[in-house]
């Protein structure tokens, strides 16, 4: 291909070197020269040869512009095949220019372009990468540069660590010292993001306990700690590559990069949990959660006590206005659960599940025997909890969450929790249930001596047992055969539990309901769903007890349609139970479900049945039909028969309604 004469392209070089030209002209010159090289109309050798005066002149302004032009062109020919000699020559040149502080920008651009080239098109060799790093560490004072140049420095160091780790193995001391010096006092958001990644990369690169990274851990973390928590705000329209969330995540990854940060990071994070600033508290919880995972059980065991007390303080001590802004309904409470409490509970779960075997007993004793936990549960067991204030509900839900997390962590933890509290809670419910009928039917709904707290915690523990059963369902026989296990405790109290849950649904037959009474019903229905949806091989229910649960819920569908809240909860419960049968391939349960539920529901298709409004009958058929394909077919056939019967009797209104059933 014909080469372009010198006169036709040298003007682009002159335009770029001329600092008085507009930036757009500078960019156009780079684009034009790079295009000529990429199209083989200008060789790189000819370009460099004819640019020699611009690259070596003593005029530092011209020299810096010339070196920058060559670096920018090199960026744009990253896919251009270059031979070994060309790469070597360019490497020598740009590495040597790192000591030329007046032309440093171009040297940085050129070095980064060389590092980013792929082997398939010609790339810098490892020996030259090492030489580049050595020269950089000896000559470049990062914090003395402008933000754009500091960004280039951090990009170069990151790229070497990420892609050429073998080049730094013999430069550990110099590298760590250089990084500390480079990142200290950094303020620019984009540079900070890169510097945090730099710490993460270098600390992961040298995990040896006897290595220099361990010795530098204190010094490096002292620098990182100055930025925690991240206080950085930016406008919605700001064009930045680093948002506050980006910076926080990058700093968190740096915190988690090595377990040797543990002696410094954990005390800092635990201290910040006491901050009055919600954002600082939230960040501390997220960081702590990740650090627990990364530092390992051996290092975190010594912090177990402090972690528990700090998390307990967050979970139970937040002011009401920070936790909930609703009227006090448990549904509203769950919907508006504060993010800080949620993160604290997540962190607690992580702490429990990541502790080593030696710390398990100590941790569960810390929580189960905690004076505040024991006192709260004893309070729940007493009759005083029958009148629930907003603060009572907040504390109850927090307590239930802690107990659930603990019980769900393992079969052993589940057994310990049930041994400590479950039997007494059920006994408390049985005592209070004797007076339930009279008060729950009180239309004012202002009080209900059936112990809601005991009911709520008991159902939470039932849910935890089901989670454990799901986790161990593939090999459940050891749990069943153990002399002491949560499953045996549950099995022994199952008749009492079913009776108690039934009593709430049986008592609550009035259409008018307060929010509190609806909470009772919702909790009881949740309990029935839970015990009926254990995997078949793990279920503590006998076949008769399972049938009794289904009969209880089905009787609501057949006879309590005036109580719409209870009716719809029961219908959803039957649908969930039917779906679990399909999920777990529970053949024995399926037979019982078909007999008790499906047969009853399809009887609602009778056109002359006026005991339940037509729209509710169709809704019940639809919901139960969605629980599985077999149920769907039976309900569909029954509805088809009803359509035929209606046509024969000229029952057009029923036919019209049936056309609106979604699955027909």
Automatic annotation (TrEMBL):
Q: Which GO terms describe its biological process?
A: DNA repair; iron-sulfur cluster assembly; protein maturation
The protein's matches in Gene3D superfamilies, at most eight in alphabetical order, are given as: Leucine-rich Repeat Variant (1.25.10.10)
Location relative to the cell: Nucleus
InterPro entries with a match to the protein in the record: ARM-like, ARM-type_fold, MMS19, MMS19_N
Tell whether DNA repair is among the UniProt keywords: yes
Give the matching SUPFAM superfamilies: ARM repeat
The MMS19 N-terminal domain is annotated at 48-316
Provide the Gene Ontology terms for cellular component.
cytosolic [4Fe-4S] assembly targeting complex; nucleus
User: What keywords are assigned to this protein?
Assistant: DNA damage, DNA repair, Nucleus
Known function: Key component of the cytosolic iron-sulfur protein assembly (CIA) complex, a multiprotein complex that mediates the incorporation of iron-sulfur cluster into apoproteins specifically involved in DNA metabolism and genomic integrity. In the CIA complex, MMS19 acts as an adapter between early-acting CIA components and a subset of cellular target iron-sulfur proteins.
The family assignment reads: Belongs to the MET18/MMS19 family.
Under which name does UniProt file this protein?
A: MMS19 nucleotide excision repair protein
- Give the organism the record lists: Oryza brachyantha
Higher taxonomy: Eukaryota, Viridiplantae, Streptophyta, Embryophyta, Tracheophyta
